[in-house]
């Protein structure tokens, strides 16, 4: 009796069948099948989804976002500023050359509204400020000679000397004397400052579209000499009063002048270049940039000094200036019709309409009572084989061909 041939392992047979099945399925072709389902509620859902998608693309994508345009953000920009006006303090008259820093007329500048002046400082020795840590002392033993505090005003000599006023003592330092808080005098320059005028000359260029424009209207007869900005009547007269800028930023001028602050003048150039160039206009807005509700980071001040000689010795006047810093910020976006984004967004819109069919198919296959009938009608498998003859009007004998029945007593009409 011949010996039985060994059978291959069960796992190998399963793997071979799986590979054959995957290889066979790789060459399958799927084609959509159209089935009309007579169900009013499902039809309402289908049309409602289609309507929402169309409204989204027509109203938001094409009208609001203007996605049919090619766009460019961040225009090339130049800003030139000029301040005019005079003001008074307790001791003198101040003009532009003194209260505007820096004087170059760039996009960022400061207008001084209050100063603390320490006059006649000379190089020598004097008492350290009490604001410096470990500056107070009772005797020379509390002061270390040669010690240098980076937040102080000079090099310590090792002596403990009386303070400028009161009975306190601080360590003596070698530097510019007297120190700031020992002899400073405050002066307010903001009395007439709200009437200062600021000319902001701005021009922009969009290189992609070769479009340029400025914010000053080309008028003759000295138009800029007697006009001030108005959003309706004088949009192209970019001369602003300082008080108007502070008011539009929602700030109190007197308070801001004492503590200092940073105000942003934002110029926005949003241009639809499908329209005429006259429709591309600047839009101005104003807001405070430094966080005034956080005391540690609010306000604005800086120091500078003026040097001169008295009897051959170098002397200086130290000025701690509080002011309103103006930052001119320019941004914008330009758009113009282009065929490529139009075609892309139209194709996206047409494709997205198919979401309605996907949603309704999911409802039919998941929640409807006749979901099995629908599944059977929607998904068919056909084998490419030689045709078999059948009697007139009859179906093929295979069970898989039962869908050729022309009537369905309990079919999709009941869905």
TrEMBL record:
Glycosylation sites: 195
Entry's localization field: Cell membrane; Membrane
Main location: membrane
Membrane topology: Multi-pass membrane protein
Catalysed reactions, semicolon-separated: K(+)(in) = K(+)(out); Ca(2+)(in) = Ca(2+)(out); Na(+)(in) = Na(+)(out)
UniProt KW Ribonucleoprotein keyword: no
NCBIfam families (UniProt xref): P2X (TIGR00863)
Full protein name: P2X purinoceptor
Originating species: Bos taurus
Name of the coding gene: P2RX2
């Amino acid at each position: 009796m011949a010996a039985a041939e060994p059978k291959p392992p069960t796992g190998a047979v399963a793997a071979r069948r799986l590979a054959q099945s995957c290889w066979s399925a790789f060459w399958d072709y799927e084609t959509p099948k159209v089935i009309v389902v007579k169900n009013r509620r499902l039809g309402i859902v289908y049309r409602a989804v289609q309507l929402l998608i169309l409204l989204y693309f027509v109203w938001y994508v094409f009208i609001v976002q203007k996605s049919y345009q090619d766009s460019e953000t961040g225009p090339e920009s130049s800003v030139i500023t000029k301040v005019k006006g005079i003001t008074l303090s307790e001791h003198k008259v101040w003009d532009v050359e003194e209260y505007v820093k820096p004087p170059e007329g760039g996009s960022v500048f400061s207008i001084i509204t209050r100063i603390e002046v320490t006059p006649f400082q000379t190089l020598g020795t004097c008492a350290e400020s009490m604001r410096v840590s470990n500056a107070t002392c009772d005797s020379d033993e509390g002061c270390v000679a040669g010690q240098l505090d980076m937040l102080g005003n000079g090099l310590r000599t090792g002596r403990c000397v009386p303070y400028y006023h009161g009975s306190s003592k601080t360590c003596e330092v070698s530097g510019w004397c007297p120190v700031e808080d020992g002899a400073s005098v405050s002066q307010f320059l903001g009395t007439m400052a709200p009437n200062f005028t600021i000319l902001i000359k701005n021009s922009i260029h969009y290189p992609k579209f070769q479009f340029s424009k400025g914010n000053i209207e080309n008028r003759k007869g000295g138009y800029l000499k007697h006009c001030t900005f108005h959003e309706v009547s004088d949009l192209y007269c970019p001369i602003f009063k300082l008080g108007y800028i502070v008011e539009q930023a929602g700030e109190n001028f007197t308070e801001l002048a004492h503590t200092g602050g940073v105000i942003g003048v934002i110029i926005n150039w949003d241009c639809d270049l499908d329209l005429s160039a006259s429709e591309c206009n600047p839009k101005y807005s104003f807001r405070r940039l430094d966080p005034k509700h956080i005391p540690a980071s609010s306000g604005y001040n800086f120091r500078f000094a003026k040097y001169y000689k008295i009897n051959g010795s170098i002397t200086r006047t130290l000025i701690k200036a509080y002011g309103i810093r103006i930052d001119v910020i320019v941004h914008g976006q330009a758009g113009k019709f282009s065929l490529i984004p139009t075609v892309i967004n139209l194709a996206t819109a047409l494709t997205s309409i198919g979401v309605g069919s996907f949603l309704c198919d999911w409802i039919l296959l998941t929640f409807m009572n006749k979901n099995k009938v629908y599944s059977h009608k929607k998904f068919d498998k056909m084998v490419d084989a030689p045709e078999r003859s059948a009697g007139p009007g009859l179906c093929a004998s295979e069970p898989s061909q039962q869908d050729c029945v022309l009537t369905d007593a309990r079919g999709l009409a009941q869905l």
